[in-house]
Q: What sequence folds into this?
């Protein structure tokens, strides 16, 4: 596996932790208690650590845009599935546009 391919894997892991901390933050602020706060902070740290690993090979602009884009899309979709948030066509269309941008960055060769 190439170093760049591994960097994209690290970036995907970072985005998953990004989704995790956002979801756990909602739970923590709704009375989740100390364990949920600890999980939230741990996921935040892990997200940034994996982003840092990815930026060893990927340009920072590409990595950051993909990280935030994938994280944003993941949180929106998790909100729909886990919390019954709106899944109207405009909202889902915007998520698709975000994911298209992330895929475009990947396909750009960086």
A:
């Amino acid at each position: 596996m190439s170093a760049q391919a591994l960097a994209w894997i690290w970036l995907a892991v970072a985005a998953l932790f990004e989704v995790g901390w956002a979801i756990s933050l909602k739970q923590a602020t709704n009375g989740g208690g100390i364990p949920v706060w600890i999980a939230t902070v741990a996921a935040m740290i892990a997200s940034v650590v994996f982003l840092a690993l990815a930026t060893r090979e990927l340009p920072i602009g590409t990595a950051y845009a993909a990280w935030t884009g994938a994280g944003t899309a993941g949180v929106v979709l998790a909100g729909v599935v886990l919390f019954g948030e709106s899944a109207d066509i405009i909202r889902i269309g915007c998520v698709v546009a975000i994911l298209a941008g992330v895929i475009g960055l990947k396909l750009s060769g960086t």
